[in-house]
Specification:
13 helices
């Protein structure tokens, strides 16, 4: 009950957003229909004198600029299916970016962008609620533990101390996060005191959201580029072989894992101070660079498969980075990782 007072649930956000849309006054009817489709919060049918419009609804409790590439990727993944993004609040700058990307949205403050058959673009309305926090399982520490469980579902049989070490979080957080997962229907009890993931694909979808929105910004350390005039990654790959604690991810990691991508960017997961890493790899700070440094967490960031000549980040982390990007080829490679390396773990 305490957590419910601190957070706006997805159901409340959707309800308040629909009420805000009704107050605009051009609708005759709004019908919400439940759906079992993964990652969707239902169907929404709008009706007015102007005609009708039907959407699959995705509720994202908090929208940030860093989440826009991931949102764009997901919405373009299903071009034949009309989607509506529903969130608690869209600031004016983000509203304009969503409108430019033709991502239709609705928020609880009354801001909205609908494209057809009626054109509606409302922005600048202030939220009624100052802020809210997601459930414990979808905060940064919870997302670290979720990563462990999605990578190795068998870890549910480990002790809470082992889970805390693997995820790099406080021991006291583990039972709270696990209880939150049970209450939200993502854990089910088995015989003999055992537990298993329930709805693992939906949980993966939620983790993918949370990684880009909350966890990745916590892990971010620096954006940089290779020193010298060449932007080729050959020298970087050669140097990385000497540093097993630096894990290769992002596009460059996906290229090494699949052999089906010509990478333009790279993500390096580092355990050391970023200045030491940049010195060792001859990297220079550059806000427009194509190499991103992220801090590792826990003990399970490394891949258990893939080419042995490289020290790869786990496919789940590589995939989460690709989701933040746009482009048909990137989406294709992301789906390849999903089908070959991630979903089989959750079967």
């Amino acid at each position: 009950m305490q957590r419910a007072k601190k957070a706006l649930s997805e159901k409340i956000i959707l309800k308040e957003s629909i009420e805000a849309l009704r107050r605009i006054g051009f609708l005759q009817d709004v019908l919400r229909v439940p759906t079992s489709q993964q990652g969707m919060n239902g169907k929404l049918q709008l009706k007015g004198e102007w005609g009708t419009a039907a959407y699959m609804v995705e509720v994202q409790p908090k929208l940030t600029e860093s989440a826009l590439p991931g949102v764009t990727h997901r919405f373009r993944r299903q071009p034949a299916e009309r989607r509506l993004l529903v969130t608690s609040y869209v600031p004016p700058a983000l509203a304009e970016q969503l409108q430019e990307r033709r991502i239709e949205f609705l928020d609880a403050a009354g801001n909205a962008y609908l494209d057809r058959p009626i054109y509606l673009f409302v922005f600048g309305k202030k939220p009624k609620h100052k802020s809210f926090r997601p459930h414990r399982a979808l905060r940064p520490s919870g997302l670290r533990l979720l990563y462990i469980l999605l990578k190795k579902p068998g870890f549910l049989e480990k002790t809470q101390r082992e889970l805390a070490t693997a995820a790099g979080i406080a021991l006291g957080s583990v039972p709270i996060i696990l209880q939150d997962l049970r209450e939200r229907g993502y854990l089910r009890r088995m015989g003999a005191g055992r537990q298993a993931l329930a709805n693992p694909r939906e949980l993966l979808f939620r983790w993918e959201h949370g990684y880009g929105e909350l966890l990745r910004p916590k892990l971010y350390r620096q954006t940089c580029r290779l020193a010298g005039s060449s932007a080729a990654f050959d020298d970087l790959l050669h140097r990385l072989r000497q540093f097993p604690s630096i894990l290769l991810g992002g596009e460059l990691g996906a290229a090494a894992l699949t052999k089906h991508l010509r990478p333009e960017t790279a993500t390096l997961h580092i355990a050391e101070d970023e200045k030491a890493v940049m010195s060792s790899l001859r990297l220079l700070p550059d806000s427009h660079g194509n190499i991103t440094l992220l801090r590792t967490f826990g003990t399970q960031n490394a891949s258990d498969d893939g080419p042995k000549e490289f020290h790869l980040a786990d496919p789940l982390l590589i995939y989460a980075e690709l989701v933040q990007m746009t482009g048909d080829r990137i989406q294709e490679i992301g789906n390849m990782l999903l089908d070959k390396h991630i979903l089989p773990r959750l079967a």
